[in-house]
Amino acid sequence: MKNRDMIDALNDIDFDLIEDAGRVTRKTSMRRKIARWSSFAACVCLALALIPVLFKPSSPPEEGTPPSSPYMENPPVQDATPPPYMYPFGYDTFDEFKNAISEKNEKTLYAELLEQGAGDGRTDVFKSFVRKFRAQHMMIPCIDGETVELSNREGFSNISFFASEAYNLPWIFYYPYVSTGENFYIKITYVPDYILGQMENPTASEVIRALSPNSPNVGNLGERYEKIYNKTIKLYDREVTAMVCEYKDDPRNSTIFMYGDLLVEVKGKPDVWTAQWFSSLSFDSFYQ
Amino acid sequence: MTDEMIVELYWQRDERAIHETELTYGGYIRYVAYAILRDERDADEIANDTYLKAWNSIPPQRPLPLKAFFGRIARQLSLNRAEYNTAEKRGGSQYPLALDELLECIADKDAAPDAAELIALRDALNAFLRTLPSDARRMFIRRYWYMDSIADIAWTFAASESRVKSTLARARAKLRKTLEKEGFDV
Prior knowledge:
The complex is a heterodimer of chains A (about 290) and B (about 190).
Chain A: H1 3-11, H2 15-22, H3 30-54, H4 70-73, E1 89-91, H5 94-100, H6 106-115, H7 119-135, E2 139-143, E3 146-147, E4 159-162, E5 171-174, E6 185-190, H8 193-196, H9 204-211, E7 225-234, E8 239-247, E9 253-259, E10 262-268, H10 275-278, E11 281-285
Antiparallel strand pairs in A: 1-4, 2-3, 2-11, 4-5, 5-6, 6-10, 7-8, 8-9, 9-10
Chain B: H1 3-11, H2 16-37, H3 40-57, H4 66-87, H5 95-102, H6 115-131, H7 134-144, H8 150-156, H9 161-181
Helix pairs in contact in B: 1-2, 2-3, 2-4, 3-4, 6-9, 7-9, 8-9
């Protein structure tokens, strides 16, 4: 038997073992855990110290009245805590974007992120995202199978690349050309493998629940939403179960769906971006 | 699209099968190939070869789950390419290093094993892997299935490189003993 036979035999080991090992995402070392908990403990101490100052009653409560507890009415939702804001990278053309994420130039992006205070963890997530995106040759929106035309609004980037946005994931925002000038966008991210590995053909609602159990979803409206529901939508090359979010104070809807391993959100007015428009939408690699 | 639907497209000889495979498993296939070959162009070629091989083997096969099927094809093709690249002194693949490490587990003889021997080896590997503690098992598979570098594994497991090396060395020693007990020539 030759050594290569061992490597070949490993090829056929049980798939659950391969999946299990492939799902491991970066673990947190004990030192980092201690540092994280120390910061958390410090924040709690500070918050406790500030409570009597910030919430000092203007007049003493009447006897027998239970003290009010504003915290218990609206307990903080951990997942809703926004990540620290980092300026997105902006590009006007797909070629410019392609050049920025190329193997040659990617280091500049990571250096900028670190400068913005992203930290190693966020930068590492961003790195894996960039490499996966590059390996798939930049997935971009297409209309009727053709690359979408970008917006070209003076002073605004046509493509914004956020290192950390919704659900603490990197997102790419594409701003297609809109004759009405509406702030319409299509944004995409990759669902992490450890989430996809747990589910078979998940819907956007299921993925979001796994990513962030407390975030608004079907059956959990939150404060900003009028309605959230699932709806079957026909795209150019497939049908998807989309999670549609109608806002209380925004005429635009968010239509969120899975496309392969992409999580996609289309935000626009439902009377403009109709079922007919969705039936022309697909995603494909920018360069083959 | 479900795995069953993609398989059906292959059976109908519908070329959308390739497109759907690319969308659903393209990233995974390239990940497996890139880990072994460390070259994006090679990984792209492996992805295309994987689709071709799948096209030629379905039908008659109906492999499920497809992720396992494509992962194995991509790995096998990548290993072949890595062997060629190593002979040509190309690329920064982890393949020759991983191969060297496994030298201590089995005797490197010229005699080619028969099919029964390979099946017995696969079964012994499965049984051995299930006896390892979870982190050691994952590190072992990341090193010898995915061909991740020691530095990458250390990063993933938030461990030092020396800890990864010693965990792998202990696992290999245990594998050697297991194979010896099973009657393999070590």
